[in-house]
């Protein structure tokens, strides 16, 4: 709306600026139109003159060209001259080059239909031997034509050459330039109009668009308002002279009647105020003393919007001085509450939240602040309702060696103490003067002297309540020169305590949930590593700063002295992630008991997770889980592994170099949609270290995955270390200050079973070969010093070899493994393995009394501590494990009793 209004004001003839604008605009339009007409006329005249010169030059050039006389004397002059004439016409830019004989017959023409016809035109003068240029209507229309005679060798005229160009073509260039000229004219008009508008706008600003009568009335109103307003107004010139002072300014400053036009230092005002008024410094609400008045001074400079001057306003604030102090206190309280909302509750730690409350209150509200909380609150539990004992949790405003009570001490309040009774009843207690307070000695009977020595004279205690439950108490103390607490301070303290109590309660509830999640997670993670002989293992587990998560690890002994290493990660934190981790860990244990290859185990686990996701309600399925499963065989040094969305392991060779072997990565668990997983295998030299980890170790907000792997490589590179030292070095290099995700680290040093710990025989498929193999096995046990279990081992091998020959297919192999666990060398085991090429598995059952067979596997189960079947790509392996210490398995004397137990004569 302002732009149309300004335009109407600018064009209005009632104002001086409008009249000047319209007059300037009319003059500019007339001048521009006249210039346009002159320019067009001159351009057309120049184009016609150019046409005359061009046609005459073309005609003379063609008429004087060599061999034209010979062409005219040729049998067919047109055939010779027409191509040259057309070429010259096109090059010269004329409409035609016409050659005709003296009898008027046309020999060349731009229009072939005109050749051979009698030319009509004023060419008699050219035939007489004189060239000319004229304008006339010919066959091409109104044209400019130049005619030149062609002379023979004797000087006589033998032909005439004419070169016409139409007036339309001659003025074509002018017509093409006309839009540019008109555009330039329009631009000139626009620039002139804008210039006129700027001049008129400047004039309108100076006159405010008013006429003489209106301007006189405006100044009358200006004077009336200036002298009637209840605020002093001064206008000070650039030289420090007083140019204008209204009546209120004269009254406030007691100015003399002739103060105007005098220098500001000569009108009798205070020196500091006069110095301010003569300076070029802008001022906002600065208070100065003038006689017995307090004046709020505001000063603004008029430059660059006007002449160099200063406009000063004066306001009497004597009566507002007392109110301003209270308003400032209120503003400070609001700022303090805002800061409290920002600074209190930055963490979910109960103790730290209490410390933040004390730090906010001191020194802006109190000189000393003490925060006492109930013991159950500090441990994340609900308040018990008993408020006679609280633990001092935070103190601010005192040095540690001057504390009334050490932080963490349990404080017992005296019965009947009004200070402690207030928070118990949910109300604040205000003590303006502790020196005259009746309950001062009851508050701290043995510490009254301490209060006086530190100059504390006023106390305000406020309960910390959330959801209607008292969590503790906040005590605010003032000392020395600080004013005592008032009723307004009590309402502020209650608001501050209410905000802090909500944060403390949130931290308490988080502490409870965190404790529950940590307890659950600790119960689901391995409490100790199992005994096995293939790997020397160490581990680290660190929950995230924000709470426990779903990372886990496992070391699972398998048959044949093999060991499975597992690390996994469930996305998220809290109880659900910990419970999900426990479910996955249990599933991995169950699947590993079936001796599956790594890729098959992850496939089964993927199906389980997908099924749980489909059955989950309210989004409580297992989503975002990854897993790495690796199996190490100490007899061959073979490491087979597969991963479902999890980072691969690091392998530290005995020489200290580090590799990250490539492992085919399958989708995370639950996303494989039935696709088969892939595995990778490699041979690990003895003494190598295997390092498995979760992504929380290598990824952080300050580094990406590649950078984390390089840091891990640097931490692992170097001389040989124990797995425990490896874990320590890795955690020192990669552990962030505040881990955002769980960290699980598993380090294992590979061991090999030497040739003296492995014995193997190939058995032909003949029952007669059982006895020789059994004898060789007994001899090997004697060499190993295991005579005490030789009898039971022979019995086991006899049964397994006989079954392999009877029910299996070749090749049949017998292997004995003697293992010694890493931590308990005395608890060694003997592993017997019988393999064949059949995939059928024996099944343990209790034979009936009338059955002649079916008791062999039962006896194997009685003599072996563990036994089972493991499938291979070429068949199966039936294995047993026996402890080598005395008394682990029954001897020969117990065999008869075991056999007799299979036939119970009393059973009918």
From TrEMBL:
Residues 220-285 form the PAS domain. Its main location: membrane. It is found in: Cell membrane. Residues 345-514 form the GAF domain. It is a multi-pass membrane protein. It catalyses: O-phospho-L-seryl-[protein] + H2O = L-seryl-[protein] + phosphate. Primarily acts as an independent SigF regulator that is sensitive to the osmosensory signal, mediating the cross talk of PknD with the SigF regulon. Possesses both phosphatase and kinase activities. The kinase domain functions as a classic anti-sigma factor-like kinase to phosphorylate the anti-anti-sigma factor domain at the canonical regulatory site, and the phosphatase domain antagonizes this activity. This is protein-serine/threonine phosphatase.
């Amino acid at each position: 709306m302002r732009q149309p209004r300004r335009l109407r004001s600018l064009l209005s003839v009632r104002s001086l600026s409008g009249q000047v604008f319209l007059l300037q605009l009319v003059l500019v339009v007339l001048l521009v139109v006249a210039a346009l007409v002159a320019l067009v006329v001159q351009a057309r005249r120049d184009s016609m003159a150019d046409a005359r010169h061009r046609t005459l030059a073309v005609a003379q050039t063609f008429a004087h060209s060599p061999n034209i006389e010979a062409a005219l004397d040729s049998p067919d002059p047109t055939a010779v001259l027409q191509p040259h004439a057309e070429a010259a016409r096109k090059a010269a830019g004329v409409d035609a080059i016409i050659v005709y004989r003296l009898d008027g017959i046309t020999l060349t023409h731009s229009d072939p239909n005109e050749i051979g016809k009698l030319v009509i035109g004023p060419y008699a003068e050219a035939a007489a031997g004189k060239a000319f240029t004229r304008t006339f209507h010919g066959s091409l229309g109104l044209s400019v034509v130049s005619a030149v005679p062609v002379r023979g060798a004797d000087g006589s005229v033998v032909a005439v050459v004419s070169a016409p160009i139409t007036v339309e073509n001659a003025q074509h260039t002018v017509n093409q330039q006309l839009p540019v000229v008109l555009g330039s004219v329009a631009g000139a008009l626009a620039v002139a109009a804008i210039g006129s508008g700027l001049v008129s706008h400047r004039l309108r600003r100076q006159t405010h668009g008013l006429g003489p009568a209106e301007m006189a009335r405006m100044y009358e109103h200006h004077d009336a308002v200036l002298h009637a307003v209840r605020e002093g107004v001064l206008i000070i010139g650039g030289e420090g002279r007083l140019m204008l002072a209204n009546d209120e300014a004269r009254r406030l400053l007691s100015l003399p009647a002739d103060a105007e036009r005098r220098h500001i230092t000569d009108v009798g005002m205070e020196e500091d105020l006069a110095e301010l008024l003569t300076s070029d410094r802008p001022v906002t609400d600065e208070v100065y003393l003038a006689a017995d008045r307090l004046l709020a001074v505001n000063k603004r400079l008029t430059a660059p919007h006007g002449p160099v001057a200063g406009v000063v306003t004066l306001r009497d604030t004597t009566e507002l001085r007392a109110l301003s102090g209270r308003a400032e206190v209120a503003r400070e309280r609001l700022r303090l509450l805002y800061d409290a909302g920002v600074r209190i509750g930055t963490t979910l730690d109960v103790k730290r939240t209490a410390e933040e409350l004390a730090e906010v209150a001191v020194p802006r509200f109190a000189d000393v602040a003490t925060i006492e909380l109930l013991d159950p609150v500090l441990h994340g539990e609900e308040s018990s309702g008993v408020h006679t004992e609280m633990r001092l949790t935070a103190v601010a405003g005192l040095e540690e060696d001057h504390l009334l009570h050490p932080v963490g001490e349990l404080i017992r309040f005296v019965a009947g103490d009004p200070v402690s009774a207030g928070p118990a009843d949910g109300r604040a207690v205000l003590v303006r003067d502790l020196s005259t307070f009746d309950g001062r000695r009851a508050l701290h009977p043995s510490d009254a002297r301490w209060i006086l020595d530190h100059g504390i004279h006023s106390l305000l205690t406020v309960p910390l309540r959330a959801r209607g439950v008292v969590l503790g108490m906040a005590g605010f103390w003032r000392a020395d020169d600080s004013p005592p607490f008032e009723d307004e301070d009590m309402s502020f303290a209650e608001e501050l305590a209410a905000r802090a109590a909500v944060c403390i309660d949130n931290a308490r509830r988080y502490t409870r949930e965190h404790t529950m999640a940590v307890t659950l997670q600790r119960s689901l993670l391995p409490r100790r590593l199992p005994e096995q002989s293939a790997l020397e293992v160490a581990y680290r587990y660190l929950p995230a700063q924000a709470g426990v998560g779903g990372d886990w690890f496992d070391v699972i002994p398998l048959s044949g002295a093999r060991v499975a290493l597992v690390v996994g990660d469930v996305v998220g934190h809290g109880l659900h992630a910990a419970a999900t981790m426990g479910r996955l860990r249990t599933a991995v244990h169950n699947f590993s008991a079936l001796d599956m290859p790594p890729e098959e185990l992850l496939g089964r686990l993927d199906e389980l997770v997908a099924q749980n996701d489909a059955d989950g309600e309210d989004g409580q399925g297992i989503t975002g889980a990854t897993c790495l499963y690796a199996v190490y065989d100490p007899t061959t040094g073979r490491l087979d592994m597969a991963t479902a969305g999890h980072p691969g392991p690091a392998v530290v060779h005995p020489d200290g170099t580090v590799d990250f072997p490539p492992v085919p990565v399958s989708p995370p668990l639950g996303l494989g949609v039935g696709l088969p997983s892939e595995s990778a295998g490699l041979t690990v030299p003895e003494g190598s270290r295997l390092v498995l980890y979760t992504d929380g170790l290598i990824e952080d907000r300050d580094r990406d995955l590649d950078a984390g792997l390089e840091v891990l490589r640097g931490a692992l590179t170097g001389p040989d270390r124990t797995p425990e030292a490896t874990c320590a070095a890795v955690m020192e290099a990669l552990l962030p200050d505040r881990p955002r995700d769980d960290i699980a680290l598993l380090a294992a040093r590979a061991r090999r079973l030497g040739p003296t710990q492995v014995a193997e025989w190939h058995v032909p498929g003949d029952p007669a070969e059982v006895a020789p193999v059994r004898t060789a096995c007994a001899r090997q046990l004697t060499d190993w010093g295991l005579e005490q279990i030789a009898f039971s081992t022979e019995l086991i091998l006899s049964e397994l070899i006989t079954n392999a020959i009877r029910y299996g297919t070749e090749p049949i192999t017998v292997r004995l493994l003697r293992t010694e666990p890493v931590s308990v060398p005395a608890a060694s085991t003997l592993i017997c393995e019988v393999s064949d090429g059949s995939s059928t598995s024996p099944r343990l059952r209790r034979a009936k009394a009338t059955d002649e067979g079916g008791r062999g596997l039962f006896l194997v189960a009685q003599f072996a501590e563990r036994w089972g079947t493991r499938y291979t790509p070429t068949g199966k392996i039936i294995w047993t494990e026996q402890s080598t210490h005395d008394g682990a398995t029954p001897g020969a004397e117990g065999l008869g009793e075991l056999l007799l137990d299979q036939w119970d004569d009393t059973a009918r």
